Backbone:
């Protein structure tokens, strides 16, 4: 398994972060224009292309303002949101010096600032990293993974999570989660509007507009979700390679992944966007499949394939 180096991956993920920041609004603008375009077919008066463009341009400032407000709130509240969604709490040094020693030794070896360390009070085995900068970077470990892995295996898992931080994977994922959340919110809001009878009977234009908006919002959600899932799967392979490079013990991570695969379920995790941040999907109901279409929506690559690649490292 070829690994291109941490600095190359940092540069690549920074570039992808910028690309995502541009791509998601572009998708949003395209879908908004298509809304006015398709809406013109259902109106009694046929609208010209210039009228469609005029309607679109009027809405652009509102779209930009709404996206900026959403993004700003999510950007500054993401740590609290993630900790709440995972039931992750700060781990004091006196409560587990073993974890602090492992994390700090790895950080010294890589020249990183030690991130915050959190614990999830769950007997299952899992871990994740999060944060957008030095002030918010953190690693969360479940009680189960701390107690059931030996030092070499746990060090390999921590190295995997530190690689996510060093590669800026966590920032990239948070950006994607924020934008996918916009499409999800719009889809749910429109669906609930239909469900609770907005518009009433006889308002054909309103009904057509809602249906068009719902379909386009779902398309946006689908496209942005596929981009998010692809990023999530790829980053796990890279972090596995980074852990092997850092610890020089790829088999230790392979052994840890075997143990994790037996019971990765974290009961507190209900959201799929948060689930993708873990070393293995913590949601018990996600089914693995080799079917190519189903695999497009998987948050993680097959753990058996990850182990196989580590054994060949």
Residues:
């Amino acid at each position: 398994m070829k690994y291109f180096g941490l600095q190359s991956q940092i540069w690549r993920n920074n570039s992808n972060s910028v690309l995502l920041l541009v791509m998601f609004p572009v998708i949003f603008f395209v879908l908004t224009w298509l809304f006015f375009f398709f809406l013109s077919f259902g109106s009694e008066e046929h609208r010209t292309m210039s009228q469609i463009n005029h309607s679109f341009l009027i809405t652009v400032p509102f779209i930009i303002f709404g996206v900026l407000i959403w993004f700003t709130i999510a950007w500054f509240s993401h740590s609290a949101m993630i900790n709440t969604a995972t039931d992750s709490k700060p781990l004091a040094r006196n409560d587990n010096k073993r974890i602090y020693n492992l994390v700090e030794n790895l950080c010294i070896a890589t020249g990183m600032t030690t991130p915050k360390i959190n614990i999830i009070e769950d007997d299952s085995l899992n871990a994740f990293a999060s944060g957008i900068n030095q002030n918010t970077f953190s690693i969360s470990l479940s009680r189960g993974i701390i107690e059931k892995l030996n030092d070499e295996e746990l060090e390999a898992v921590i190295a995997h999570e530190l690689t996510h931080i060093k590669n800026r994977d966590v920032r990239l994922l948070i950006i994607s989660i924020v934008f996918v959340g916009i499409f999800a919110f719009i889809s749910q809001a429109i669906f609930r509007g239909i469900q609770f009878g907005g518009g009433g009977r006889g308002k054909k234009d309103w009904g057509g507009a809602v249906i068009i908006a719902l379909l386009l919002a779902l398309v946006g959600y689908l496209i942005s979700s596929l981009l998010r899932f692809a990023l999530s799967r790829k980053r796990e392979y890279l972090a596995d390679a980074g852990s092997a490079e850092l610890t020089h013990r790829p088999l230790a991570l392979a052994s840890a992944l075997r143990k994790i695969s037996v019971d990765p379920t974290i009961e507190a995790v209900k959201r799929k966007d948060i689930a993708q941040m873990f070393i293995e999907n913590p949601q018990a109901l996600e089914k693995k499949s080799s079917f190519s279409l189903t695999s497009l929506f998987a948050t993680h690559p097959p753990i058996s394939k990850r182990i196989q690649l580590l054994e060949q490292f």
Observations:
- The CA atoms of residues 218 and 266 lie 28 Å apart.
- Confidence is low (pLDDT under 50) at residues 287-292.
- Strands lie at 88-90, 116-120, 127-130, 138-142.
